[in-house]
Each structure stands twice: as structure tokens, then as C-alpha cells.
Amino acid sequence: MTIEIGYDDKGSGPALVLAHGHPFDRSMWRPQLDHFSAHGWRVIAPDLRGYGETTVVPGKTPLETFARDLAGLLHRLDVGEFVLGGLSMGGQIVMECHRLFPERIRALVLADTSPRAETAEGKRNRTDMAERLLREGLRPYADEVLTKMVAPANVAAMPDVAEHVHRMMRSTAPEGAAAALRGRAERPDYVPTLTAVRVPALVVVGDQDEYTPVAEAEFLRSLIPGAELAVIEGAAHMPNLERPAEFNSALANFLAKLA
Questions:
Q1: Residues 181-209 pLDDT 10s
Q2: In angstroms, rounded to a whole number, what is the distance separating the alpha carbons of residues 73 and 196?
Q3: Does 150 map to a domain?
Q4: Staple 230 to which of 168, 244, 245, 250, CB 3.0 to 4.6 Å?
Q5: What is the mean pLDDT of the chain?
Q6: Which residues constitute the domain of residue 79?
Q7: Is the peptide bond before 23 cis (omega within 30 degrees of 0)?
């Protein structure tokens, strides 16, 4: 089916494409969109299927569907090669894009994400959560997980950031979020494909991330030949929003080497 995709496309130069996490939208990349579009990059940040301003499709959305949506958008925008980054679910979409069309990707940025296939328990949990979100909406979930997405100290010290993250979560359509959860429950194991990566890669993680701890980021870095690791201190699962200056500095240093 044809879907309408909401996206930001800002700046000029080589393309930097950013995939958001669950249950967020493209506004999570605002600090990166503004910074890198002002420093020689064309930054493209789409809302994924079922999120933000992009069409909600109930049922199940596999990572392959997200990846093909992204490829279709970039084709329409006449983008050939690009640097591709993503956070959490967005990072898994990045890995799926590399599996499907590695020849188009100049470099990978994998933030607060895991390459492993879902466990049996994880499949049950995601399926159960999908049903819960359809019953309750996103507000109770957003209340519950805010201090895991954003470090508790940052919720207190950065109320604007905390409210932004909470607003993204509670505004997400339950049908879109549930479809993504069902799709992620069946995600493949990216460990074998990552050992074949032949482009530069940067792994980023918040040092207080409970969902994908530093040890998981170190494992991810170990899989990819020559990959770099940046640990962002004082951040949980959203280091690009909790510590935007540090995140942007790590990404800028990495991108500078591509020239």
C-alpha cells in the first residue's frame, strides 16, 4: 500500500539520514537536524510508518517494511549514497537497511540499540505490550518508562527534554506502536551480517541506559570491523536529547573522518 511520509529535509551536502526510536517521532532528532544541517550536511529525518505524521497501518510492521519505506523515500528525494543512523528500534532499522542495500550506505551510526534476535520471553513481552497499548493508549506506558528513557536526574534537571520525550510517547498512535512491537518481536539476528560491514561505523550509548547497557554497545562494536564506540556520560536511552552537545561532538568527529 502507498503511505504518506512526514519528514524533515534540511541543509545541503552529503546526506545524513536519521531513524527515530519507539515510540517516538522525527522531532527527537531536532538537535542533530539543526546542528548538522548548519555544518555541511543534508539531514533527512522521517517519521516511521505508524508514527508522527506518517500513515498508521494496523497489524504488524516488520523491520523490513520500515527499511523499504526509508529506501522509497530516499529514492523520491533523489538520494543515492547516505550516512544512516538510528536509535534503539531505529538502530535495528539501520541494520535491516544494511542487510537489504549495503551498497547505498556510506557509514553506520548505531545508538542505544541491540543486534540480537528477540528471545522467546521478549517475543511474549512485545506481543503483550502491543495488546496493552491498544487497550490503554500510550499515556500509562509513557508515565511508566519516562525515567528509563531519560535518566532520572535529567528528568529533574531538564524538564523541557523530559516533557518532549513524554509528549512524543503519549502522542503516538496505539495501532502504529502495536504494529511495530509485533514486527520487532520477529526481528532477525543481525550478529552474522554485522561482521560483514565494510563501511565506517559509530556505536553510541548513554552510560545509564537500562534497555541497551554499555556492555551491549561494546558487544555491538566488537562485531563490526573497525567500529568506534562513544559512551555518553550522564545519559540514559536518549543521549542525543539528554546530552546533545556531547552526542553531536561524537557524531561530528566521526563524520569528519569520512571526508
A1: 999 999 999 999 999 999 999 999 999 99
A2: 26
A3: yes
A4: 250
A5: 97
A6: 7-256
A7: yes
109: cell is: 551510526
Q: What is the pLDDT of residue 1?
A: 78
The cell for 111 is 545508538
- CA nearest to 92, candidates 130, 65, 72: 65
Distance CA 67, CA 183 (A): 12
Decide if 2 is inside a domain. no
Q: Output the domain CATH number for residue 150.
A: 3.40.50.1820
Q: Tell me the C-alpha distance between 144 and 198, whole Å.
A: 40
DSSP 41-68: -EEEEEPPTTSTTSPP--S---HHHHHH
In the sheet with 105-111, reading across from the earlier edge strand, the strands are 7-10, 42-46, 15-19, 82-87, 105-111, 201-206, 228-232
Does the residue 241 lie in any domain? yes
- Number of compact structural domains in the chain: 1
Cell numbers 519507539 label which residue?
Answer: 22
Cross-strand partners of 7: 46
Q: Alpha carbon 199 to chain centroid distance?
A: 19
The radius of gyration of the chain's CA atoms, rounded to the nearest angstrom, is 17
Return the residue matching grid coordinates 517521532.
Answer: 25
Scanning 9-138, the segments in alpha helix (DSSP H) are 30-37, 63-76, 89-100, 120-136
